Amino acid sequence: MYELIQVSDYSYYIDSPAKIGLVKLGEGEVCLIDSGNDKDAGKKVFQILRSNNWQLRAIYNTHSHADHIGGNKYLQRQTGCKIYAPGIECSFTSHPILEPSFLYGGCPPKELRHKFLLAEESRAEYLTDDALPCGFEIIDLPGHFYTMAGFRTPDGAVYLADALCSKKTLDKYKISFLYDVGAYLDTLEKIKNMSAKVFVPSHADPVSDISELCEYNIRSVHMTAERILDICSLPLCFENILERLFNGYSLNMNFEQYVLVGSTVRSYLSYLKDSGKINADFKNNMLLWERV
Known about the structure:
This protein is an alpha/beta fold. The chain folds into two domains: 4-222, Metallo-beta-lactamase, Chain A (4-Layer Sandwich); 232-291, Arc Repressor Mutant, subunit A (Orthogonal Bundle), CATH 1.10.10. It contains ten helices and 13 strands. A seven-stranded mixed sheet has the order 1-2-3-4-5-6-7. α7 (181-192) packs antiparallel against α8 (211-231). The protein starts with a strand and ends with a strand.
């Protein structure tokens, strides 16, 4: 773990729970793509920088989930580096309490105020083309979260953040976190037609051809949508839908899974409603969902 692995002429990743991209920029400078899940991850990254006599110019966050920005504060404090994040992700990165608040839908209880959902604050700036190193390209990857972005480097590496899950992860957990199901499917279709020397997803092995994994993720989304539709063959409230989904997938409910899976299920319900496949109706002061 935290081994530095080269994938192209100047592009690397640090093997960690959420892969951290590292790209050499010349004259001893490097940039990072994400920073790991916490301060300890930041310390390990800093050791790699020191052992190679590299100066960290900037961290480019793909999105604001805690496992991607958790090392920001430590690395910024140690190096004075700039931190950039795309769109609304910049606000979440600067004010990470927004993540558990968004997931819970209110002031989060202490069970949700931990490093896996609540990173330390860091000083982030909005990601623009002008902030990128020469030859870098921003790739819009909405769906997993609000304005998630990936990056294409001049030497042909494409960092895909959380745009895809590995087959192993999908087979184990069945349902992956999504904010916007429709946008996510569009993103997968876009990625499926991309070419690169190497693709580096945060939670899957690097590959030269990403199309097969894209198809697997697309099928997984459609299977989850169909399962929710089947559950809603009778009018049910959200809590009953979530209970039946957890039981069907043999998942264990706790605060963290409740908000992560629960938020995703709400997104699926919105997607299915807007697609005309499910109705929402208020009866006896309860919001009930039923398949059309």
